[in-house]
């Protein structure tokens, strides 16, 4: 049989006889970005930040020194002058949008504000990465806006909270809340670069340090007994002093770096979440619904802690963890400034609805990570409402009160 000639492609023959046709497109997208740690990034005499911001640009046109900065309003109050001085001193023509950034305004309106600023600035498609400076909310909002502006504009993250440094600032997820859905709309879009500077933690309120420690505790519980033991030591230091007191500097550094390392170890091979069994989803089964239900009351990490307390109860109930280990986890939480109990745990319907929503998120199965001992995990698909009630009863019975722990520490 003669093969089709170049001028007469075979599909034309087919189409003329019967509508139809078939093409298959296969492509692989290479993703590569760096996470760099450097203290005092905004020290004017240090060219590190300026160099990093210039070196990460991928465009092939003439280099541009124009940059649009999107800055969290609290960060602007604390560091605005230092930011302006740094960018001016290093020859950037910087414009700035200062944005309110916290969970209650993590929504489409904030994304629109960033899109409008990008448009007004006339951001170049490749050569002028937008720079996000702020907490996890700010980083998620800016990443989302950048990822949809011109179907993808480069951006850089400079996280300024503990959650930002160890979690929101290092992966590829962006997004905002939509209706009652936590991070319901968003994209997977890597930054060109993440620049981590722990000196920003100096101004972070203790409650927000605890909030970040919750995500570190999550990683420890499913991946590292050694990290958990260090967190127990940190719990005895007091949250503020862990990060402020030079005496604890080695411990604070180990906890922060190890957490980033373990997190990236999980994220890199499954960046687009093709595999939905993710141990870093530990503490994120019930918490998205609980957090949105109590959004004025609970911070992200606090909701994750409540979820981890409940799932610790589930592990104990299944014999995956001894009762003694379960109590140890709840005490560590308290010591890190996190309350294992929240009244949402008394709302059985809410917890069952939360699990149903997570099943939709995880393609029809619970794929619920549970701790196996401390530092290991398994995935289960058969948690029942009765088991959830028993898990709640475990937390109610064993969650130490804050004053009880203070007494123990004296
Ligand atoms: N994309 C991801 O992979 C990912 C991972 C984990 C969490 N998150 C998201 O991160 C968000 C939580 O992040 P967060 O805890 O940083 O909250 P946040 O961004 O709301 O910041 C907390 C508060 O701290 C203030 N702040 C920021 N930096 C400061 C500083 N250096 N000193 C003093 N105050 C400062 C902010 O203005 C805000 O009021 C949640 O929305 C969560 O969904 C995303």
UniProtKB/TrEMBL annotation:
Cofactor(s) listed in the protein's UniProt record: NAD(+)
Record key words, sorted: Lyase, Metal-binding, NAD, Nucleotide-binding
3-dehydroquinate synthase C-terminal domain ranges (all copies): 212-351
GO MF annotations in UniProt: 3-dehydroquinate synthase activity; metal ion binding; nucleotide binding
EC number: 4.2.3.152
CDD domains xref list: EEVS
Official protein name in the record: 2-epi-5-epi-valiolone synthase
Protein source organism: Streptomyces paromomycinus
Designated gene of the protein: aroB_2
């Amino acid at each position: 049989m003669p093969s089709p000639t170049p001028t007469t492609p075979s599909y034309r023959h087919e189409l003329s006889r019967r509508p139809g046709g078939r093409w298959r497109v296969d492509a692989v997208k290479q993703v590569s970005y760096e996470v760099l740690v450097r203290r005092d990034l905004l020290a004017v005499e240090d060219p590190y930040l300026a160099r990093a911001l210039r070196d990460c640009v991928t465009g092939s046109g003439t280099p541009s020194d124009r940059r649009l900065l999107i800055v969290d309003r609290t960060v602007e109050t604390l560091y605005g002058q230092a930011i302006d001085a740094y960018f001016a001193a290093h020859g950037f023509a910087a414009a700035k949008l200062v944005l309110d950034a916290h969970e209650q305004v993590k929504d489409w309106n904030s994304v629109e504000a960033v899109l409008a600023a990008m448009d007004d600035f006339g951001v170049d498609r490749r050569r002028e990465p937008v720079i996000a400076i702020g907490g996890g909310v700010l980083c998620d909002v800016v990443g989302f806006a950048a990822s949809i502006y011109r179907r993808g504009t480069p951006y850089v993250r400079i996280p300024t909270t503990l959650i930002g440094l160890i979690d929101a600032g290092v992966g590829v997820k962006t997004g905002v809340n939509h209706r009652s859905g936590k991070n319901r709309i968003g994209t997977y879009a890597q930054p060109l670069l993440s620049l981590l500077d722990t000196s920003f933690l100096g101004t972070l309120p203790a409650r927000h340090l605890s909030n970040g420690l919750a995500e570190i505790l999550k990683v420890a519980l499913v991946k590292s007994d050694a990290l958990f033991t260090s967190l127990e030591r940190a719990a005895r230091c007091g949250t503020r002093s862990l990060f402020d007191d030079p005496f604890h500097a080695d411990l604070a550094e180990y906890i922060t770096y190890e957490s980033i390392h373990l997190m990236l170890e999980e994220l890199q091979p499954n960046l687009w979440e093709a595999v939905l069994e993710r141990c870093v989803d530990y503490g994120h089964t019930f918490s998205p619904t609980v957090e949105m239900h109590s959004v004025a009351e609970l911070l992200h990490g606090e909701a994750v802690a409540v979820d981890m307390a409940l799932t610790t109860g589930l592990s104990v109930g299944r014999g995956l963890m001894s009762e003694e280990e379960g109590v140890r986890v709840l005490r560590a939480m308290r010591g890190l400034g996190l309350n294992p109990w929240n009244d949402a745990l008394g709302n059985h319907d809410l917890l069952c609805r939360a699990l149903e929503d997570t099943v939709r998120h995880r393609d029809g199965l619970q794929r619920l990570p549970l701790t196996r001992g401390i530092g290991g995990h398994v995935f289960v698909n058969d948690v029942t409402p009765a088991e959830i009630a028993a898990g709640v009863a475990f937390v109610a019975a064993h969650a130490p009160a804050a004053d009880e722990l203070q007494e123990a520490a004296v």
